[in-house]
Automatic annotation (TrEMBL):
Pfam families membership: Methyltransf_11
GO MF term (any one): S-adenosylmethionine-dependent methyltransferase activity
Taxonomy, superkingdom: Eukaryota
PANTHER family: METHYLTRANSFERASE LIKE 7A, METHYLTRANSFERASE LIKE 7B
Residue ranges constituting the Methyltransferase type domain according to the UniProt record: 150-232
Protein name from the UniProt record: Methyltransferase type 11 domain-containing protein
Organism name: Haptolina ericina
């Protein structure tokens, strides 16, 4: 089988296209074997809710589930289950260092978010839930703040993420604390929920992968209640390093193919600020260290217009 290649740095600035050993986990080279094995279908491979497994999206909701999912309307028959399983395994095993690096930013964001939610019950939609790395932040940041019961609904087109996500919820003791955690197959461009049903929407490393950011943000605004909060943390095109930005532009086609639709060259904060339906966007840009083309990052919270 093919193995991720580690190149040696050279003198030329563009030789930074080579990976330093400590960055070997980075997504591009992690998923190169998938390209050789099977041509992947984009992560957002469908625009309506669908599920090949009745358990995934038609499961009986918990008694205190606060929002109803739409019934499946179209199955995504083009996704490759072998690639989806491999991608889910890679995300579960290969993102630990990155999650540790952004933990303080996430903690601050989730603390702000939970402080604004109703004190009794609240619905939170996780777009691109993936393996649910955000699960601990619904517990560690609460400390008496926020809702007594959360109905967390994860939306993701990759069914193979479901078991990882539910295990992460169990590990964080969310069900034991009385919170509902559900996983439904769907995409950000067609969220399978009713208008104005969510108190908050969360997107971490998801807007890089959706096919249509504008449509996705329209959906975020649609499902949010008036005054609802949209929490986001995304890697973006570098604003501070022109050479890195050029590298991100060059590598994006390969990244899209090898990492389930992920783009390295998006100016996501500009798109969020221009999106209709939001009254305020409080966000910042910063650079992580040690993650090369994933260093440029935005994080913040946008408020739905009342």
């Amino acid at each position: 089988p093919l193995r991720p290649r580690v190149f040696r740095p050279k003198a030329s600035p563009l030789s930074a296209l080579s990976m330093r050993p400590q960055l070997g986990w980075t997504l591009l080279w992690t998923f190169l074997p998938l390209v050789a094995a099977v041509r992947p279908v984009g992560r957002r491979g469908m625009l309506t809710l669908g599920c090949s497994c009745a358990v995934c999206s038609l499961q009986t909701p918990p008694a205190h589930a606060l929002a109803s999912l739409s019934s499946p309307t179209a199955a995504d028959t083009t996704r490759n289950q072998q690639v989806d399983r491999a991608f889910a395994r890679s995300m579960a095993a290969g993102m630990g260092q990155y999650e540790a690096a952004v933990a303080s930013q996430k903690q601050a964001l989730f603390t702000r978010l939970l402080e604004t939610l109703p004190s009794t019950d609240a619905v939170v939609v996780e777009l691109g839930m993936g393996t649910f790395p955000n699960a601990p932040f619904y517990v560690s940041t609460r400390s008496g703040m926020g809702p007594q019961r959360l109905d967390i609904i994860g939306i993701d087109p990759n069914d193979s993420m479901r078991d990882y996500a539910l295990r992460a919820a169990d590990k964080a003791a969310l069900p034991a604390l009385g919170h509902s955690v559900r996983f439904a197959r769907g995409v950000g461009e067609a969220v399978p929920l009713a208008d104005g049903c969510a108190d908050a929407v969360v997107s971490t490393l998801t807007l890089c992968s959706v096919r249509d950011q504008h449509q996705c943000l329209l959906e975020v605004a649609r499902v949010l209640k008036p005054g609802g909060q949209f929490l986001f943390l995304e890697h973006v095109l570098s604003e501070t390093d022109p050479i890195l930005a050029r590298q991100q532009q060059l590598l994006t086609p390969l990244q899209v193919q090898s990492a389930d639709g992920c783009h390295l060259n998006r100016c996501t904060l500009d798109v969020i600020r221009a999106a209709p339906g939001f009254a305020a966007v409080d966000a910042s840009y910063f650079d992580l260290r040690g993650f090369w083309f994933l260093n440029p990052t935005i994080a913040g919270i946008a408020r739905r217009a009342v």
